[in-house]
Design brief:
The structure is a homodimer. Chain A contains eleven helices and 14 strands. By secondary structure, chain A is of the alpha/beta class. The first copy, chain A, is globular, with a radius of gyration of 21 Å. The first copy, chain A, starts with 15 loop residues before the first strand and ends in a 9-residue tail after the last helix.
């Protein structure tokens, strides 16, 4: 109904082959042909950055094929990714539903593209590969299958709302990529903490998974936005040492984020309950602890893709917790610049990223 | 760690048998013995109200057993519910994870119970059966298996934070139960609309599933809280007629909530985009439409238990939507009284409930 009145072009609806009417992310198959609509841009791809969940699943499946007398592991992985992209016109893992991001150089920009890009710009996409039309032309011959960073020649299409960040000159590409991968978390944390502080009382902020990539940047962002104190929860001594050395939290607590009573008790003992709790732990079962660690009237921000909607909703209701629970939207205006600046200004955060750029704890996408 | 410092009693941690440390809702098995801890209360149960998803699953499984030469359908259903309660000490469907609510009469109140109840009060629980210790003593002999309302004799335990509502004298019990089942939705909608209106501009509110129980009450709540206009989306003509006759929405639109472009176009054509969008449709796949129907800076409240956390998070990011997305917390202080008053004051809402009390579109729990 009224489809022709809908301004669907910037969302890429014209690239959806099936099912008709779906948004590109939910679609099974996209059209990756290189000819541009007026509001699109085309990128010459040089690297795919598969999200951690997808890379793990692909590796496990490839290892199984390989052990069963199939091709070698690297060949099996290349075949898997090439097969998905050929069939779907995008790199969206059909098992995990997730994608990742890419880097490349802008090749052509349609006259009506609102992205502000110019040919020659070296960029990273800030929208997921799971909605980005993609064609691969080199058979992924340079990928050894050992890392989720995939050298790749091909092209990708950016829609009017497919935001991208020009890669900075002053930071190594792997570092910048890792920061951009999680840049929504510090941006939303900053906004929520700033709003809470504007109410008069500077909030206590608890961060579950504070020594990870999204968690450490969220800790820095919370402090800059006016947190009274930042309590960082981590699962083990090694992480605690990393976080303490980096100096990003006022209190560092070792605690299993899946144990609700332990999380609540730990946060209380460290100066809580929290007015703002940020969940950056990518394992299931952290909803209860986050709810119990948060003061009445406070806010929980869930960034973990392992969050269960119903566990959060029923969990809060079940303990009569009058708290606001936010789904961590990966888009906040200015998020890329904010996150890159945090890493530039805070050597501790940079050290955590440099120690982790091979691990991948991002929200994926 | 620090477990002994944790004030876990009001959450019922002492009733958890396994696994140790879990909250009662996440636990596999609770202790339903009738002896009270000082902050507990015991209820003589007269009726279980299984949530819609659980009742559907139990009925399908019982029909299969029955068709395979097992007991009759009603007997198979009774056996299933009795078996779950005997094994788990609570009525939590192991397949759906959900429970429902119960009505009964308060039998004994511990000296430290903070619930404000007295023996003889006739109440409905506002926390889920999935966390409520329960023992059944009549074999469910009076249940014919045809309805999710289960006549039942037995007892249940309320913890310090297991809130309950005294049933009103002026409303039929089935109506009051149906209203209480969804009372979190209008309460949170009211709060969010009021906050948006306080900013100066009265918000346009779109409600997906506006002719259902939670949707219709949310429509009434939005209007009372200062919405500029209420746009009600429904899937079919019959629902549109019901909603139009009830007079709860300024615009009634027929639209498939799973079609993102259609939802966005419909809401725009009806005066949108919305500053507040409320999702009350209990089918999967409504995240994209809700995101696209909402103006930048606006808020989506997801009440549907069919909401996918990752579809919402990645969907908003994928279209660069700067919106706030709330997980619909079923608890807001005063929610029961607010919802009952809406039905008392608004004959249109009452008519919708009376036409629907056998259907069950609640958030379940």
């Amino acid at each position: 109904m009224q489809r022709k009145d809908f301004p669907g072009s910037p969302l890429g609806l014209r690239r959806v082959i099936e099912p008709a009417g779906a948004l590109p992310q939910a679609a099974w198959r996209l059209d990756p042909s290189p000819q541009l609509w007026p509001d699109e841009a085309r990128v010459r791809v040089d690297r795919l950055n598969l999200d951690a969940a997808s890379f793990r699943q692909l590796t496990e499946a490839a290892a199984e094929r390989s052990a069963g007398g199939g091709p070698g592991l690297a060949a099996a992985l290349r075949e898997a990714v090439l097969g998905i992209v050929a069939e779907r016109g995008k790199m969206q893992n059909p098992v995990t539903g997730s994608g990742g991001m890419l880097t490349g150089v802008v090749e052509e920009v349609g006259p009506d593209s609102p992205l502000g890009l110019a040919p020659g710009d070296r960029i990273a996409t800030l929208v997921s590969l799971s909605l980005t039309p993609l064609a691969i032309s080199d058979g992924l011959a340079r990928w050894d299958g050992r890392s989720e960073q995939v050298p790749c020649d091909g092209h990708a299409i950016l829609f009017g709302r497919s935001i991208a960040a020009v890669l900075p000159d002053d930071l190594p590409v792997p570092l910048a990529l890792a920061v951009l991968d999680v840049c929504g978390a510090p941006a939303l944390t900053s906004r929520v903490v700033r709003q809470a502080a504007a109410g008069g009382d500077a909030p206590v902020v608890a961060i579950l998974g504070a020594a990870g990539k999204s968690g450490s940047l969220s800790a820095v962002a919370a402090r800059k936005a006016g947190a009274r104190s930042v309590i960082g929860l981590v699962p083990a001594q090694g992480e605690a040492d990393l976080l303490a050395t980096a100096g990003l939290a006022d209190q560092v607590v070792i605690c299993d984020a899946r144990d609700p009573a332990a999380v609540a008790a730990s946060v209380r003992a460290a100066g809580g309950p929290a007015q703002v709790t940020v969940v950056c732990v990518d394992v299931p079962g952290c909803e209860g602890g986050a709810v119990l660690a948060t003061a009445d009237g406070g806010t929980v921000i869930f960034f973990s893709m392992a969050t269960s909607f119903s566990a959060a909703a029923l969990g809060a209701e079940g303990v009569a917790a009058d708290i606001t629970m936010l789904i961590g939207n990966g888009y906040v205006p200015g998020h890329a610049a904010l996150a890159l600046d945090l890493v530039r200004d805070e050597p501790g955060a940079r050290r955590i990223f440099e120690s982790r750029t091979a691990e991948g704890d991002g929200n994926g996408g």
